[in-house]
Specification:
There is one protein chain. The chain is an all-alpha fold. The protein has helices spanning about 1-15, 20-35, 40-45, 45-60, 65-85. The longest helix is centred in the last third of the chain and has 23 residues, at about 65-85. The chain is globular.
Length: about 100
Amino acid sequence: MEQYIAQKAQQALEALCSDAPLRDRLKSARGHFCLVAGAHFLKTAPPEVGESITDFMDADIESDAGGAARELRTAIECVFESIGRESIPHDVRCN
């Protein structure tokens, strides 16, 4: 499940980086995240990932596109950070 959430975060990032107007990019990103914003997916994710996705989904794109963009950035970063932590082998040591 978490790999699917990461895939949707990657697609949301790609939508955010397009040449479309900001509100259109945010709506496209929301479309990708809406597929994993349901309780079934969010229960399998770490709490901070679920919260950040929910915060973005609750953001008002029309009246506060800047705030929604910040929530989207946070959600994408949180997903990638969480997946990165879990995909690092346990025998790797950082000095």
